[in-house]
Design goal:
With 79 residues, this protein is α+β, with helices and mostly antiparallel strands. It has a single domain (5-74), classed as Glutaredoxin (3-Layer(aba) Sandwich), CATH 3.40.30. It is 38% helix and 20% strand. It has three helices and four strands. It has helices at residues 14-25, 39-49, 70-76; strands spanning 5-9, 30-34, 56-58, 64-66. The chain has a four-stranded mixed β-sheet with strand order 2-1-3-4, sandwiched between helices. A hairpin with a 5-residue loop joins strand 3 (56-58) and strand 4 (64-66). The longest helix has 12 residues, at 14-25. The chain is globular, with a radius of gyration of 11 Å.
């Protein structure tokens, strides 16, 4: 199932790894965009999220979450 979730993040980011674990636990497919190794994508994440904070998560309904808690992410996904 592809829910159209996109995550901008970096492997060194604990919040990014945590968000990925939540999505994996809920069996939500997502596309990972590594901002650490792509300056253009890093700038895109800053523009979308309005800050330098990551993860920036875009949900299928185009809701944008920046550094959400597990509960916020689960609630927005309707789980």
């Amino acid at each position: 199932m592809n829910d159209g979730v996109v995550i901008y993040g970096a492997d060194w980011c604990g919040d990014c790894r945590r968000a990925k674990r939540v999505l994996e636990r809920l069996r939500v497919d997502f596309r990972w965009i590594d901002v650490e190794h792509d300056a253009e994508k890093a700038e895109e994440a800053r523009r979308i999220g309005g800050s330098r904070r990551i993860p920036v998560i875009i949900l299928p309904d185009q809701t944008i979450l920046v550094e959400p808690t597990d509960a916020e992410l689960e609630q927005k996904l309707g789980r």
